[in-house]
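RECORD TYPE: inverse folding
INPUT: structure tokens
STRUCTURE:
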């Protein structure tokens, strides 16, 4: 169902970005570098696998019209798990790449509404002489909320999110199998703060529950 909701968001223009900083659309072009860590349980049949996912990513966004921006995002991904014999003690590494669309509407001189959607493909793997393991998935993510600005200083924001993950785990070698992957926790909340740096730059801190449970920091500049 989230796939259809996400597609509807893209067609209608409101949307949500994975780095949780979809407002500030007065910036014509925006480049962000983000460092995030997400802790969640991957559902594999009846099993729940404790998973930690770390990302180093970039997000490039261009404004189209007064309230909408389209973006490209991607970067490196690092994944570890406990309770899974095929990956225990290993760090899987790989990449993520996707697209986003953001919408922002001012409510007053200090308050604004934001919403957005993103699609992300992610793949991590590990290989040795005995075993190859690959985890890959598609992520559909959406969020909305309210931001409060302190002119020339900072923005504070909070809201709600919903996401879905659809993927698989493929093993070859001593164990050869393919298993479907999903998540149970799809909805949650988010909150963060973004501060202004030297006029054109900014830095922020964001925390979430739900699919992207965890925290991250990001740095960016407008052009």
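DESIGNED SEQUENCE:
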């Amino acid at each position: 169902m989230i796939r259809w909701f996400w597609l509807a968001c893209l067609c209608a223009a409101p949307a949500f970005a994975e780095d949780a900083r979809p407002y500030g659309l007065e910036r014509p072009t925006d480049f962000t570098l983000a460092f995030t860590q997400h802790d969640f349980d991957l559902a594999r049949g009846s099993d729940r696998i404790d998973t930690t996912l770390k990302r180093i990513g970039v997000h490039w966004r261009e404004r189209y019209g007064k309230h909408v921006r389209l973006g490209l995002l991607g970067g490196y991904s690092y994944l570890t798990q406990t309770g899974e014999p095929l990956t225990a003690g290993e760090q899987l590494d790989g990449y993520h790449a996707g697209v986003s669309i953001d919408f922002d509407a001012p409510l007053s001189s200090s308050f604004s509404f934001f919403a957005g959607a993103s699609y992300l493909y992610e793949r991590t793997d590990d290989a040795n002489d005995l075993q190859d393991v690959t985890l890959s998935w598609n992520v559909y993510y959406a969020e909305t909320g309210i931001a409060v600005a302190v002119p020339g200083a900072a923005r504070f924001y909070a809201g709600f999110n919903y996401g879905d993950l659809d993927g698989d785990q493929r093993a070859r070698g001593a164990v050869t199998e393919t298993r479907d992957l999903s998540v149970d926790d799809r909805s949650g909340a988010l909150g963060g703060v973004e501060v202004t740096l030297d006029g054109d730059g900014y830095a922020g801190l964001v925390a979430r529950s739900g699919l992207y449970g965890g925290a991250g920091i990001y740095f960016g500049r407008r052009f």
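NOTES: The chain has one domain: 2-222.
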